[in-house]
Amino acid sequence: MTARRFGFGRPLLALVIIGVAVIAAFPLVWMVLSSLKTPQESMQVPPVWLPRSPNFEAYREVSDVIDAGRSMLNSAIIATSATLGILITSLMAGYAFAKYSFKGRDTLFAIMIATMFLPPIVTLIPLYRIVSEMGLAGTLFGVILPQLGNAFGIFLMRQFIAGVPNDLIDAARVDGASELRVLFTVVAPAIVPAIAALALFAFTFHWNTYLWPLTVLQGNTDNYPIVLSLGRLLSYNRGAMNAGFVMAGATLAVLPPLVLFVFLQKFFVDSMVSTGVKG
Amino acid sequence: MLGPATALIGFFILVPMVLTIWLSFHEWSSQTGFSAARFVGLRNFEDLFAPISVGRDFRRAFVNTAVYTGISVVVMLPLSVLLGLVVHQREVRGGQFLRTVLFATYMVPMIAVALVWSKLYSPSEGPINQILGWVGIGPQPWLSSPQTALYALIVLNIWQQIGYFTVLAVAGLTQIPSSLYEAARIDGANRVQSFFGVTLPLLRRTLLFSTVVAVINAVQVFEPVVLITQGGPAGSTNVLTYHIRRVGIERAQGGMGSAMAVALMLALIVAVVAIFAFNRKGEEQ
Questions:
Q1: How far off is chain B from A127, nearest CA to CA, in Å?
Q2: Which residue of B has its CA nearest to A268?
Q3: Nearest-angstrom CA–CA distance, A211 and A220
Q4: More confident residue, A278 or A44
Q5: I want to staple B163 with a disulfide (CB 3.0 to 4.6 A). Which of A85, A151, B103, B276 is the partner?
């Protein structure tokens, strides 16, 4: 397929690419630049774009208001545990759906997939109550536990495990390996790219997620992940008008998922392509 | 093998979903146990349609969410196909680069996106009004006026999500065999004709999936509202996820909040069925 087919001239097409890329990147570039400004600079009208003497003062200020290290650690704990849990449960269920045949399999699979399309707000109120009654309100475990079963993960793993040859699995079974052993030593190594993609998706999603932690942590700021602490920064900042300070916090929150994405984007995009089309 | 996933999804998604439906027929404080719920029949739903403040606020949030969702989808999907064509072409380099930049915006936390855009939109210190000033357009109020705030949030949503739908569009475009374009060209079709005759019909499945996902994503808008606008000014950005959480959890009116959640769920089912019906009708033509 060529550009000519769609009626773009080359220079125009190049301009479109540059223009769209600039618009897409601008807010994130602005965020980083603003985080390096002095408080005076970030209050200027009209705004200055480049900090005259870039400095990390705003980042120090962030640490005065929120325990940024603690928040980042909380985010890392939530995202990592959720990811590990999702990987294990999704591999197991995906294996069962792909390689076992049992009564009601397709119905059960359809029900699970349907949950993927359920907006979280629909279940939020009773879920909040259930987790509170389990004594987990305000805890990191309360944030993590309900996230460990993931329909998208099951779907992705089933799609890829279906492509693993049955001969490979049967050979391992003949050798007397248990089913879990077959799954983790034979099947899983055969679909490493898909597992990597799921891990990255899960990590990013649970690093970024806001609604559920906000609801279940109930103001226990010690356990706030960085995205929630950012909200505190803003309310603290409301009078002070120092945009640089909020932008520094936002930069901290954005960095881990963005760095992960830049280095591992191949897995992300490839798996999106395969699931998007098959889905 | 199925035990852990089934138990987790069952207990933390399916059971709460059934409870939401059950609670919607009850008066219940979400600060108390489920056993404290008092059956009230359809009263919660009647209130949602009644000319009282509970109903008015809900209907406003419902309309705001529908507008937000509708405009997001109608703008984003055609744009994603256009950008998909740009990324997919081989004539000029930079397509892959563009895909990376666009998709990067989808990976960053919504909360950070909301914070950054609230500064970009700032009437006096923000760069958007500054840039508009350079081309002779006067300052706009953006998030501070009831006339523009919801649209400002829609722009933010499109900015964040467009990369995801562009990647889906590219995936769809990759599936179209180039022999079909050859055939169209031999039949004398020009570029525009082959786009409408070949590309668009073969993207139908992709667009169907994208539309459903875009709708489901859009009704979840929450962070920019809770953090920046608090539903205002004058209720203009009060959307359902924010409103349901405020009623059902902050005000602890669990039964009423659940009724609103059920209404949202029903509306979504209707919307998805309509999208599929629209698609089938298009297929027949």
A1: 6
A2: B103
A3: 15
A4: A44
A5: B103
Same domain, A14 and A82: no
Chain A residue numbers with beta carbons less than 8 Å from the beta carbon of B85 are 6
pLDDT at A241: 56
The pLDDT value recorded for residue A183 is 94
Measured between CA atoms, the residue of chain B closest to residue A5 is: B191
CATH match for B59-284 among 1.10.10.10, 1.10.3720.10, 3.40.50.2300, 1.20.1250.20: 1.10.3720.10
Mutate to test the interface with B, among A122, A144, A236 (most CBs of B within 10 A): A122
Pick from A18, A47, A204: CB nearest B125? A47
Angle between helices A243-278 and A151-161 (to 10 degrees): 40
According to the model, what pLDDT value does residue A3 have?
Answer: 43
What integer pLDDT is reported at residue A269 of this predicted model?
A: 67
Contact of A3 with A13, CB cutoff 8 Å: yes
Q: Does A2 score more than 80 pLDDT?
A: no
- Which candidate in B92, B105, B241, B244 is best for mutational testing of the A interface (most A CBs within 10 A)? B92
Q: What are phi and psi of B76, to 5 degrees?
A: -70, -40
Are the CB atoms for B34 and B19 separated by under 8 Å? yes
**Domain that residue A211 falls in:** 66-278
Q: Residue B160 and residue A181: Cα distance in Å, rounded?
A: 41
Tell me, yes or no, whether A10 and A108 share the same domain.
no
Q: Is A274 helix (H, G, I), strand (E, B) or coil?
A: helix
Q: Are residues A16 and A154 in the same domain?
A: no
**pLDDT greater than 90 at residue A39:** no
Looking at residue A64, its pLDDT comes to: 80
Indicate if the pLDDT at residue A239 is higher than 60: no
Chain B residues with CB under 8 Å of A122 CB are 17, 20, 261-262, 264-265
DSSP labels, B186-197 = HTT--HHHHIII
The answer to whether B112 touches A250, Cβ cutoff 8 Å, is yes
Q: How far is CA B52 from the centre of its chain?
A: 28
Interface mutation target, options A125, A224, A252, A277, chain B, most CBs of B under 10 Å: A125
Same domain, A124 and A231: yes
* pLDDT attached to residue A274: 61
